[in-house]
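User: For a reading group we're discussing how well predicted structures match intuition. Take Prenyltransferase. Before you show the prediction, I'll give you the sequence so everyone sees exactly what went in.
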Amino acid sequence: MKLLKHIFDFYLNSSIHVALSCYALVRVTFHVFHIQYDEPMALFVFFGTIVGYNFVKYDALVRVKKKPIGNQLKIIAVLSFVSLVLVGYYFFQLKQITQIVSFGIFAITALYTLPFFPNRKNARNWAGVKIYIVALCWVGATLVLPYINAEIPFIPDFFIKCIQRFVLVFVLILVFEILDLANDDPHLKTVPQTIGVKRTKILGFSLLVPFWIVGILTFTFHELFINLIMVVMLMLFIAFANPNRSKYYTSFWVESVPIFWWLMIVFL
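Assistant: Thanks. Here is the predicted 3D structure of Prenyltransferase, as structure tokens, for the group to look at:
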């Protein structure tokens, strides 16, 4: 049982789970825009998420705080390096415009982690902007990149889906911020720190309602039903979120919402 827990913790700590969530959202994008499965694109996002998230999570620990590197972190470093090689491999199979846009997303990720400007902290520590940067990166990686790589003309539906995807990720991050309330630096001015947990939950509920209603314009009845299940699921996660919840509440269950969404599309 202890071994299984170690394996499960490694699965979460190495960002494989969050990468699978991003992969699932790419597959959702393929579905809603009727794009044939594009393996290089999907795996580029999957392995890119592992590299990006591990860089964001562990760079400060190793580079700034000089924490000793344990065995798990060494394995994560090897996994990240292999993922980086695979990112490079799949990168050269993408369309040129996709490559250019992916550099933009990489630049935002780097800005989020590294202090590029003199006497300024990295963007991760800029008051009030963290949630918007993360949501934009997710929209860019899981929707914009697959869309432009498929060389589909820009239509109003694309922009509607971008807004919906942004709202979805924004709400997911709200749950994370509620659980991290006790540990986050007060200067970050996260949403719960600014307006309180109760109002943050109300904000999450109020965003999910138009998220589903707008879908009436672009989704089929079957897709609306699946989206309704996902919205109810997210509302329950918001309702029961509190700073005393286990880390698995967000790092596994909340981050599984995109995976459940994709699986419902496939099997329901």
